[in-house]
Structure prediction request, 354 residues.
Amino acid sequence: MAKQAKSNGRKNKRRSVSLALQGGGAHGAFTWGVMDRLLEDGRLDVRAITATSAGAMNAVAYAAGLGLGGVDGARETLEAFWREVSRQGAPLAAVAPPSIPSSFDAINPFSTWTPFSFVTALTSFASPYDLNPFDYNPLRDALRRSIDFDAVHAADVELHIAATNVETGRIKVFEGEEVTLDAVLASACLPQTFKAVEIDDAPYWDGGYLGNPSLFPLVYSGAPRDVLLVTLNPLRREGVPKSAGAIQDRLNEISFNSALFSELRAIAFVQKLLDENWLTDRVQGRYRRLNIHAIRGGEALCDLTLESKYDTRWSFLTSLRDRGRDYAEIWLSSCCDQVGKQSTIDLRKEFLDA
Prediction:
């Protein structure tokens, strides 16, 4: 039945694309809005997704819904997942004594019981192994309640989910049957808040440290050559931050963008070699020409702070969804017709010449 739903959910003559989805906590609801509008429009056929952290959660929600009910199912499952995020992120104080937060509330960045500034200060000198010994993670329950991983594996889309191997310091990309609930949690495992996720005796942290998202799986997997990148962190921000909070925000943005910059520069360099015929015929066949497109959520969200990445109020999440839909609409109007023909961002200008 899943296969029948998948085939019915895809339209003929749509333009095949790969999605590359950044992580960014609750800001991932922006990506939900982007995907919702792309699915509603119907001109694109998403054949592959590489994703990290919140991007990985959007990816598996899309795949699960697609596997069960085609395009409509994908839209429904994306919304169901974010509703669960909001529900699981509601104040744990509702079941705790009114005057004292629970032990995990004291370090839970998703809880509105304790000020975020206190959470940040506490986790700067105490680890989750001390403060969260039972490794409570509200995202685990949100994924369990909303995502059918059998449907994820049955869906007609290839997934590449990135995590960071704590011991080797190397990136791990989970694919195919490897894409499990634990793999998605590993991709979103912030080491200041959660214990490392153990998979096959290897510990993993958030994939954003080494790939946010990682683009190389799309180069080597035979995925569609048109890659639509959905960013959540501003690539550029004018001015020098002066407050402690603003400095930390910008450091986080830079560190979580660094791997993406490196990969885009590498792609731009290869494109330059191809364009200027620097490669021999024997070598040239080993490289793929990619068309890169971008919906810059970082620009749309630059007015938001680091703290808002942990805001799971439904009103806030739906406001981000609506921003994502608006930015997707702009991209569809101005760039969608170029899919399959050429890039709609100048990689050389933005990432190589600079």
